[in-house]
Amino acid sequence: MTTVSIIGGSGYGGGEALRLLLDHPKVEVNQVTSRSHMGEFVYQVHPNLRKRTQLKFSDLSQLEPVDILFLAQPHGEAQQHIEEYVKVTSRIVDLAADFRLHDADVYEKWYGEKHVAPDWLSKFVYGLPELHRAELATANYVSGVGCNATAGNLALLPLIKADLIEREVPILIEIKVGSSEGGAEGNSGSHHPERASVIRTFSPFGHRHTAEVTQEMGVTKVSLTMTSVDLVRGVLATAHAQVKAGVTTKDLWKAYRSVSNENPFLRIVKEQRGIYRVPEPKILAGSNYADLGFELDESNGHVVSMCAIDNLMKGAAGSAVQCMNLMMGWDETLGLEFAGLHPV
Amino acid sequence: MTTVSIIGGSGYGGGEALRLLLDHPKVEVNQVTSRSHMGEFVYQVHPNLRKRTQLKFSDLSQLEPVDILFLAQPHGEAQQHIEEYVKVTSRIVDLAADFRLHDADVYEKWYGEKHVAPDWLSKFVYGLPELHRAELATANYVSGVGCNATAGNLALLPLIKADLIEREVPILIEIKVGSSEGGAEGNSGSHHPERASVIRTFSPFGHRHTAEVTQEMGVTKVSLTMTSVDLVRGVLATAHAQVKAGVTTKDLWKAYRSVSNENPFLRIVKEQRGIYRVPEPKILAGSNYADLGFELDESNGHVVSMCAIDNLMKGAAGSAVQCMNLMMGWDETLGLEFAGLHPV
Amino acid sequence: MTTVSIIGGSGYGGGEALRLLLDHPKVEVNQVTSRSHMGEFVYQVHPNLRKRTQLKFSDLSQLEPVDILFLAQPHGEAQQHIEEYVKVTSRIVDLAADFRLHDADVYEKWYGEKHVAPDWLSKFVYGLPELHRAELATANYVSGVGCNATAGNLALLPLIKADLIEREVPILIEIKVGSSEGGAEGNSGSHHPERASVIRTFSPFGHRHTAEVTQEMGVTKVSLTMTSVDLVRGVLATAHAQVKAGVTTKDLWKAYRSVSNENPFLRIVKEQRGIYRVPEPKILAGSNYADLGFELDESNGHVVSMCAIDNLMKGAAGSAVQCMNLMMGWDETLGLEFAGLHPV
Amino acid sequence: MTTVSIIGGSGYGGGEALRLLLDHPKVEVNQVTSRSHMGEFVYQVHPNLRKRTQLKFSDLSQLEPVDILFLAQPHGEAQQHIEEYVKVTSRIVDLAADFRLHDADVYEKWYGEKHVAPDWLSKFVYGLPELHRAELATANYVSGVGCNATAGNLALLPLIKADLIEREVPILIEIKVGSSEGGAEGNSGSHHPERASVIRTFSPFGHRHTAEVTQEMGVTKVSLTMTSVDLVRGVLATAHAQVKAGVTTKDLWKAYRSVSNENPFLRIVKEQRGIYRVPEPKILAGSNYADLGFELDESNGHVVSMCAIDNLMKGAAGSAVQCMNLMMGWDETLGLEFAGLHPV
Fold first, then answer.
1. Which residues of chain D have pLDDT under 50?
2. C-beta separation of B322 from B129 below 8 A
3. Which residues are registered as beta bridge partners of A101?
């Protein structure tokens, strides 16, 4: 068995990675660290893991050599400790934002502080298999993906890949998100009486994940508008763009079918009947699918492309495990088979 | 006391109008009709009205002369019966879509059928006081407003009135809505297990209320994208537009302050601290306020303007009562004083 | 105008009292204090009050003489400062738990600490008008009511008043509550991702409010079981008791009708058709009604009595304002006319 | 591979069984029937199954011979067609209520109609493995379990098995349920604006599942009180009983540990710290666990026992698949490994 340890396993992303890795047929979880919950059983923090593991959270200082290290710390930690981590492992999958951007200046612009390990930026492959499957197969270091960036990138992927949209016309990506995106640490705004039933546009533009869309899609005129809604897990990105002259719905079908065929976790949802005609995050909780849909207003070229994901799965731990599978030469879908629930 | 009757009082808009009118100091409710609930106490359908009224739903055929008639029927009914209605009253406030659009061709384009009483279209004033206060003061016939159109129109109002945006650049209005918008009649998609927790972009463009934005704001390049979220009452419109060259945040503040000062139910929500920094529909349930907010990206002129309302109040019955107040020369805010709740 | 000040106005109970008092036709709000939000506009904390008041939170040390003082502090504060408060006012309405219990020993038993102002316990009238209307008319000091105790007490009131149940058979009161009951200060369990969708029996028995049921209903064999559910405002008490031999459904109807007739805010909800056949808190948000229902299993004498309230209204600020009205000789319902919403 | 067909696969129970069976390593799904969705892809009704199967719903009349037949029809259907079903299969797992009760008179009492295949009642084993593991190993016909009955039975199991409670003292089981329990067919009360945020005690006593508790636990003085809350999947039973004189918390721990040790899907949740100290259904969505907790008031012998389950898993399809595993001599947990999610 391949051994894996998780640093920062008491958060939501780390907890989800832990759940997946505990059930993964090829790996064995060695250690899970947590500063705030050290010494507690992991099931005391992640109650779904009761009767699944007797692991306790250990201290980072007790880290032992391991085949693969998953990093699930708050942003900013990994870059400070990367040199220590590589002493105990040869393969890293990071879930945080530290190594997503390749350019240290871009990092500084969006995160408001200098990167402390800029030399490492080029050593990490951006961890979205739908974009970097081949590179991941030979990678040793894989970055995480921003959940909102992932919904945005996958909404744009068919359009960009088939070169169907005008890059000079601003792309607006309206993103609606659940509360788990904010992480396991609460704040005054996440207090249930204040957070329940919200439709809260907390960031009209300027969200940090924008940088990942720009980097990965090669588009500069793009903005993300973030709105919180009443849901725990889930992201829906609704992207608005302008198709090139002459592009038809048929062209779009071809482009979406192509990415769906090439990627086991991409699905097209575009039905004429029934309740579920468009991508919806609610049915994706726990699943690694990204559901794509689109609609073209042929009268003016306005295309609306949608992508729904579970922010903790395809938007975080699911993609991370998928990257691990690719790195190790295993079946890409291993340990990620859960279909999601209906109803839920 | 001025007498009022409501046709179609068992639906959500009619029920909300009934609640407001029962508590209104200047009016007395004579009759409330309902085809499906005839003979039942209104509190059996609207349980909040228990111990407030002993009225029963009566049949439309029993309609008696009255000072003001509120119409709250499903779309399409009012235009068929308008000639009968004007025999029993000299003043009509309609909540439905029948008399919102002034042009019969535009009506046919968006509603897919010929209007059966086109001569009446010009006799109705569009019932949004923020746009037509003066006309309403002398009107006899007032149309309803589309709830989504209202959120969109009020989001654009400061920008259009102060002439701050480029009308040739497409305006995208992303609208998130609660489930009461679909009306009191359920369908397979409104069944709770399917409707709970959704983020469902059910209409990427082409929503009928677009016609009201075009008519009232005078903008032709505009689209409404409709997304259902998990909430019962509430609409948030997030409008994206392009400001004219040189327009600054200061100009926007001036424009928004101006409409807020002129209109008792418009408020600006744009705070730097606290939980409620932007407009949010959740705190507006039962209130007639429309909360406005905005943000300008000065680097590229992208302005995001937000408007939150309660779809059954400012987006329907609240505006209707406000119009009645104006028609009758009463204080515009009469019967609409409820502030909304926090928390909720 | 009668002047009122509120101490502790940034919490949920104090905020709700403030909302009611601002709209009350007989009073004027002088001051609202808050330690944590001093200097802020009250609408920055209670966003529903924007455009309703320009009051700012002041410091407790700046307290000025006033006709009536509302106390809405965390439990334990009022008893420490009562001597100071009575220097600035002759009438106090407390929303907290400090002066609800008449017996200092009982207080110590349930609250785990000695009462620091035991002499004051006998000076306060328990602030539930349905139980103490006459005393309240001459009271100067009125205690608050526990929200859960109120739901329990009103569920039992018809049964106890008409002497219909066996007091030696244990009474079980199963109470389901929304998240606002926990107050405005969040904790790890109120973080939205953890608190959403819960059915969490956080206290199987031993809840402090039990003492208020025992004191007010005169029953000793009674337990409250507390379960949190996904709702912000609202409490439903489902009380199980044993009727005396021979008691019939007809007797129960008589008992419930009697209390409903005597109390403007009590309503019976017991319908054979429609959606709303039993008491439900959701339609009571913002209203001061307590809805009562019951069902008797005549085969074994098991009676189930239900009471639904809004915990911040009838269970806190609403009852407090109702008490003020009675103290001042005003109409009991003044300022409490809001009917609640449907749908919501 | 063992072949399985599902009759009535478009409902919630049938859909969940289908999901589990499609991923089950030992079986192959041959057919899924649905009257209302015949000819549609199953993923059009169960959107989580998109890209998992190309099966279409077929007509019941096309039923082919199969190793195991799952019945997931509305109540009343299976008893009418049982003779036909046994012609095509030798093994049946029913999810509906038709063959749960062994006594035709008891059936008639609770269901209000004569059973049409009473001879078959004794041929079915009640499908709760925690109660009938040995019998299931040799059974050919297995009944479904009522979801509420299952929560109640498992809450009582440790108490009854260790003979710790007084059977002459009435047992009250307060059950809180999500909306999926009502099935896939909506009604006026399941319309989202009416169903959202409810705390609705729709059945104070007399629920049909009571009969299953009486039959399986051997207790006659028991009542189930049913309350709907805002959740899609999940049941929490909070059972109140009286322990025998002298029974201590230590005795209870022993009894609960015993059933937890003997049953792979039973877990004890009774923590002194953390957020998840008691059983909660929200973390069980999609999992087959039943989480048990308890608290004893040693001053009076009042014991509160809790059981949380996912009504569609342990309360329906999960237990059904577990029964199939036992019937076939396979590992009891096969295909039921999903741990559930946190947060969710």
1. none
2. yes
3. none
Q: Do B229 and A230 touch (CB under 8 A)?
A: yes
Which residue in D49, D66, D101, D147 is the catalytic one?
Answer: D147
Mean pLDDT over C330-337 rounds to 98
Give A320 to chain B, closest Cα distance, Å. Answer: 25
- pLDDT tens-digit series, residues C132-175: 999 999 999 999 999 999 999 999 999 999 999 999 999 999 99
Q: Per-residue pLDDT tens for A200-212? A: 999 999 999 999 9
Largest alpha-carbon pair distance within chain D? Answer: 63
Pairing type for strands B302-309 and B235-242 reads: antiparallel
Interchain pair D184, B193: CB under 8 A: yes
Q: What are the beta bridge partners of residue D191?
A: B191
Residue C182: strand, helix, or coil: helix
ipTM of the complex: 0.97
Could you tell me which of A342, A283, A275, A344 has the C-alpha nearest to residue A314?
Answer: A283
Query: What pLDDT digit, counting tens, does each position of A89-115 carry?
Result: 999 999 999 999 999 999 999 999 999
Q: Report CB contact under 8 Å: A196, C197.
A: no
Nearest Cα of chain D lies from the Cα of C23 at a distance, in angstroms, of 27
Tokens of C145: 């009511």
Closest CA to B265 of B241, B239, B288: B288
The Cα-based distances of D58 to A38, C335, D35, D41, D64 in angstroms read 54, 62, 8, 10, 11
Residue C142 is inside which H or E element, if any?
Answer: strand C141-142
**How far is Cα C225 from Cα C199, in angstroms, rounded to an integer?**
13
Beta strand extents in B156-212 (DSSP E only): 171-177, 199-203
Q: Quick check: C311 and C234 in contact, CB under 8 A? A: yes
Selection from D171, D207, D148 nearest residue C295 by Cα: D207
Helix (H, G, I), strand (E, B) or coil at A14: helix
- Residue-wise pLDDT tens digits, D24-69: 999 999 999 999 999 999 999 999 999 999 999 999 998 999 999 9
DSSP string, A189-213: GGBHHHHTT-EEEEESS--TTHHHH
Q: Are B157 and B139 in contact (CB under 8 A)?
A: no
Q: Which residues pair with D304 in a beta bridge?
A: D240, D295
Sign for the CA dihedral angle at B41, B44, B46, B50 comes to positive
Our CA-based measurement puts residue D206 at a distance from the nearest CA of chain B, in whole angstroms, of: 24
pLDDT tens track for C230-258: 999 999 999 999 999 999 999 999 999 99
pTM: 0.98
Tell me what pLDDT residue C153 has: 98
Question: Tokens 């549609």 appear where?
Answer: D40
Residue with token string 């699905």? A267
User: Cβ contact (<8 Å) for D197 and C234?
Assistant: yes
The verdict on whether B147 is a catalytic residue reads: yes
Q: Which of D185, D187, D196 sits opposite B232 (nearest CB)?
A: D196
Amino acid at the residue B36: S
For residue range B281-319, what is the model confidence (pLDDT) as tens digits?
999 999 999 999 999 999 999 999 999 999 999 999 999
Distance between CA atoms of residues A160 and A182, nearest Å? 29
**Confidence (pLDDT) at C69:** 98
Sheet holding D235-242, edge to edge: D199-203, D222-229, D171-177, D235-242, D302-309, D290-297, D266-268
- Which regions of chain D does DSSP assign to beta strands (E)? 2-7, 27-33, 57-58, 68-71, 91-94, 141-142, 171-177, 199-203, 222-229, 235-242, 266-268, 290-297, 302-309
Distance of CA B119 to the CA centre of its chain: 24
Give every CB contact of residue A181 below 8 A, 6+ residues apart in sequence.
Answer: A147, A148, A235, A311
**Strand-pair partners of B226:** B175, B203
**What is the Cα–Cα distance from A73 to A68, expressed in whole angstroms?**
16
